Amino acid sequence: MSALLEVRQLTKRFGTLTALDHVDFDLLPGEVHALLGENGAGKSTFMNLLYGLLRPDSGSVSLEGVSYQPASPKDAVLAGVGMVHQHFMLIPALTVAENVALGDEPRRGFGIDLGSVEKKLAELAAEYHLEVNPRAKVADLSVGLRQRVEILKAFYRRARLLILDEPTALLTPQESQQLFRAVRAFQERGISVIFISHKLDEVQALSGRVTVLRRGQVVGTLTTDQTSPAELARLMVGRSLAPPVRPPSRPGPALLEVRDLQAQGLGPLGFQVRAGEILAVAGVEGNGQEALIAALAGWSRSQGEVLLDGRPLGRLGVRARAEAGLGLVPSDRQEDGLVLPLPVRDNLALRAYHRPPYSHSGVLDLPYWATHAETLVREFDVRPPDRRAPAAALSGGNQQKVVLARELAASPKVLVVSQPTRGLDIGASQFVYSKLLDLRAAGKAVLLVSLDLDEIFALADRIAVLYRGRLMGTVPSESATREGIGLMMLGQEA
Ligand SMILES: Nc1ncnc2c1ncn2[C@@H]1O[C@H](COP(=O)(O)OP(=O)(O)OP(=O)(O)O)[C@@H](O)[C@H]1O
Ligand SMILES: [Mg+2]
């Protein structure tokens, strides 16, 4: 079978950094080809080149035997290439149909023929199992539905090659299953898919072949059936990885105590997290996790009591809560965790720039910021290790490391951490797990909000299940089973 896409010796540099180094890659018609690699390995850069968002420095790409040099996503789309980005690109104020048609609107008289877009969308949705209401406003859709819109947008433009950059990173397990079903439908229709994921089980379930990138170079292309997660991990990281060890817990007094907490879409609920303990909040996305985080962080108004080490947080604002010893790693690193245009150095100082040692009598101590950033960048292995780079220039996983570094460096008494390893590669995830376990060993309290049951079982001492804003119950992790937690997540008594 001749390849749909042939990439030869593709190279891309950013200044002195070689993000892609003489990459060779083939994609067959109807093939699902996974792309694996550590954070910053060059996966998104590669895909951005194929989608016309970046231009290569050298090398060649051909599509169906014809030279392919997209100068913009428009060229890519015309050539039949569609992409769903790691961070979505839809316009929230517009409807589904408007977003899909944007830039390619069918005209009727002086207006746009949205009726025909809606009709076509309904056909595509049925064909690929991607149902969504074409008249819904994108702002009102869940992450999973937004992603469907992105995919439908690509097919509306007759994509033959679909690039999915970490499509499941933001999805619930159920939404991921629906996506996989859709990907199999694409494949049956001869559409080729490049699938980027850090989750090896997904790679194994979906792909026929897998290419591993390490620091911009291809270290191998393997037939998925003939490899193992251990081999893939070793190729990716260059060494074997051992799972984290969680010593038995010796919890102390409650450091975080929540009583009758109530907010929009939340509660009333109560729980405690003790010193030296990790309490996980499990649940299907959209069951009140964000409202809980907002209430604890002081972003939203809530009723009830939150006590940190016995001290009521009451109406304290965000900064005062941080001062009181509350650390926060929010779910959305780009929106709530970072100021993207600012350099890494400043992002690492955001939490406490107003006080010593970051500033003295209102004067910022920038040399301190620099040395502090230098230390954290090395400790957390942010790549590239450049404190001057704007956060926006870091790969997704490396952005997450910056947020974690800032919050952990403050050694908070209580850390509220949401989805800490979303988008992180295996090595980096293990590093984060060990950091959270260190915090626990140091007698701090960790509230872990996660959609990932593997993560929860690896870390938690107790598991609380959130369903429709209320706690279904709390179970010690030793006696919990996946099935039991899964049932509680669906609102059933275990
Ligand atoms: N616009 C840019 N300017 C400068 N450097 C960049 C730019 N885009 C990417 N890089 C760098 O290129 C390298 C590859 O980044 P890329 O986003 O492709 O990684 P990735 O494999 O997608 O990682 P992740 O799994 O974290 O998403 C990284 O070191 C990144 O910092
Ligand atoms: Mg990426």
Overview of the structural elements:
This protein has 494 residues and is α/β, with parallel strands linked by helices. It has two domains: 5-237, P-loop containing nucleotide triphosphate hydrolases (Rossmann fold, 3-Layer(aba) Sandwich), CATH 3.40.50; 254-489, P-loop containing nucleotide triphosphate hydrolases (Rossmann fold, 3-Layer(aba) Sandwich), CATH 3.40.50.300. Helix content is 34%, strand content 26%. The longest helix has 16 residues, at 173-188. The termini are far apart. 46% of the residues are buried. Magnesium ion is lined by residues 43-44, 86, 165, 395-396. Adenosine-5'-triphosphate (ATP) binds at residues 14, 17, 19, 37, 39-45, 86, 383-384, 393-398.
Write the layout of secondary structure elements.
Layout: E1 5-14, E2 17-27, E3 32-37, H1 43-50, E4 58-63, E5 66-67, H2 73-78, E6 81-84, H3 96-101, E7 107-108, E8 111-112, H4 114-128, H5 143-156, E9 161-165, H6 173-188, E10 192-196, H7 200-206, E11 209-214, E12 217-223, H8 229-237, E13 254-263, E14 266-274, E15 277-282, H9 289-297, E16 303-308, E17 311-312, H10 318-323, E18 326-329, H11 333-337, H12 344-349, E19 359-360, E20 363-364, H13 366-379, H14 396-409, E21 414-418, H15 426-441, E22 445-449, H16 453-459, E23 462-467, E24 470-476, H17 482-489
Parallel strand pairs: 3-10, 3-11, 6-9, 9-10, 15-22, 15-23, 18-21, 21-22
Antiparallel strand pairs: 1-2, 1-4, 4-5, 7-8, 11-12, 13-14, 13-16, 16-17, 19-20, 23-24
Helix pairs in contact: 14-15
The chain binds adenosine-5'-triphosphate and magnesium ion (MG).
